């Protein structure tokens, strides 16, 4: 890698760290509400547990003995592990018994997945290129799943013609974060970074396009109600029984 490429690699890594931090902090308003009301209401803990797994796998992938020159990937995702852990802990404290049990079961599941990946990569895979391939594939799959989680929100926006449940800043930082790490991966010729983040860049762009199309209708559309959870810290109000998604 030339000196110019190294400089650009660093620049986009720094931008990716900044936008990633804003993305991780975006649900903080939701958790202020949870703490204030001492209840998780109808919020779902699943997105935060899955985000924790994604951060753990990405932070592991960025370690020097797994993939070279990706310390900035470990830096931001290590920070994400701390932030998402706090979210999950708060959720468990204030969740109802049934929701708490479901969230704990999922938490143990994702910790088992991460532990398996880490142990296999250390104990069973001795060649560095094979270790990078194994860890990169697993991290990429869960990264794509995380980026795809707002698809339900996008469907809701198109159905209700309202962006009430798709905040502009959240969509913007999904786009900026995906774009930054996509370019970072291209410069470093790392397919396990540019493929999932290219997907995230595309979905972020689609969210911004939907926002531009429907934002003017936002004040005229009644509050939409749905079953299930809206990812990335959004509420999941109940949907009328006559409407099923």
Automatic annotation (TrEMBL):
Keywords: Cell membrane, Membrane, Repeat, Sugar transport, Transmembrane, Transmembrane helix, Transport. It holds the Pfam family MtN3_slv. The keyword Protease does not apply. Its main location: membrane. One of its GO terms (biological process) is protein homooligomerization. It is a multi-pass membrane protein. Mediates both low-affinity uptake and efflux of sugar across the membrane. Belongs to the SWEET sugar transporter family. This is Bidirectional sugar transporter SWEET. It comes from Salvia splendens.
């Amino acid at each position: 890698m030339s000196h110019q490429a190294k400089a650009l690699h660093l620049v986009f890594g720094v931008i990716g760290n900044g936008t990633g931090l804003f993305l991780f902090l975006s649900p903080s308003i939701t958790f202020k509400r949870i703490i204030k009301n001492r209840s998780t209401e109808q919020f779902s803990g699943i997105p935060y547990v899955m985000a924790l797994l994604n951060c753990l796998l990405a932070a592991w992938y960025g370690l020097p003995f797994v993939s070279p020159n990706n310390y900035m990937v470990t830096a931001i995702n290590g920070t994400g592990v701390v932030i998402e852990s706090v979210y999950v802990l708060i959720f468990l404290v204030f969740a109802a018994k049934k929701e708490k049990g479901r969230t704990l079961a999922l938490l143990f599941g994702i910790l088992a997945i991460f532990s398996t990946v880490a142990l296999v990569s250390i104990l069973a895979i001795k060649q560095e290129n094979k270790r990078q391939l194994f860890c990169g594939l697993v991290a990429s799959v869960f990264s794509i799943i995380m980026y795809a989680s707002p698809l339900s929100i996008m469907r809701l926006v198109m159905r209700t013609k309202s962006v009430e449940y798709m905040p502009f800043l959240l969509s913007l930082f999904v786009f900026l974060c995906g774009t930054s790490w996509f370019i970072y991966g291209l410069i470093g010729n790392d397919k396990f970074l540019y493929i999932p983040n290219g997907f995230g860049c595309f979905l972020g762009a689609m969210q911004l396009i939907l926002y531009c199309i429907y934002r003017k209708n936002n004040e005229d559309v009644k509050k939409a109600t749905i079953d299930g959870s809206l990812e990335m810290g959004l509420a999941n109000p109940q949907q009328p029984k006559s409407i099923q998604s």
